[in-house]
Amino acid sequence: MAKLNINGRVRDVKVEADTPLLWVIRELVRSCVLPVGGVKATDRIVTIEGLSATSSHPVQKAWAAVDVPQCGYCQSGQIMAAAALLRKKPKPTDQDIDDAMTNICRCGTYQRIRAAVHMAAGRKQA
After folding, report:
1. Left (φ > 0), alpha (ψ -120 to 50) or beta: where does 46 sit?
2. 101 CB-near residues (< 8 Å, 6+ apart)
3. Beta pairing partners, 56
4. Mean pLDDT by 10-residue block, N- to C-terminus, for the chain (126 residues)?
5. Which among 22, 77, 24, 23 is positioned nearest to 48, based on CA atoms?
6. Torsion angle of the four alpha carbons 66, 25, 43, 102, in this order, in degrees rounded to the nearest 10
7. Burial letters for 41-62: b for 16+ Cβ neighbours within 10 Å, e otherwise?
8. What is the pTM for the complete model shown?
9. Pairing relationship of beta strands 9-13 and 2-6 according to DSSP bridges
């Protein structure tokens, strides 16, 4: 049994401590390599749904404005990685973005991803 704080709600989950977090909650950045046993009840887990109930988070709005997604397969992870980057570096450079955005995009929309991150950071689209 583990306690997880997901989007502001503490939840009890019945899983082994080495269960990947991804199996417990889908669409969370880096949850594929983080076991549940590595998460404390006091850790705050934010999923894409936790960014904004109305899709009004700056990254979500920029993603739509720049029309980033093609297939959508990786977009939840991309958006979460971008939001995490902007929390750490509110005005990232191109190199900061390239270094932080390690999720693989099957469609190759990396230039639009970079433009959307800049837009969410308050910079004009490249």
Report:
1. beta
2. 78, 81, 82, 85, 110, 113, 114, 117
3. none
4. 82 83 63 70 80 91 93 87 94 96 89 96 65
5. 77
6. -40
7. eeeebbbbebbeeeeebbbbeb
8. 0.72
9. antiparallel
Judging by beta carbons within 10 Å of its beta carbon (0-12, 13-18, 19+), is residue 70 exposed, middle or buried?
A: middle
What are phi and psi for residue 36, nearest 5 degrees? -55, -35
DSSP letter at 35?
Answer: B
Q: Is 71 helix (H, G, I), strand (E, B) or coil?
A: coil
Environment class of 31 (CB within 10 Å of its CB; exposed 0-12, middle 13-18, buried 19+): buried
Task: Return d(Cα 21, Cα 7) in angstroms, integer.
Answer: 14
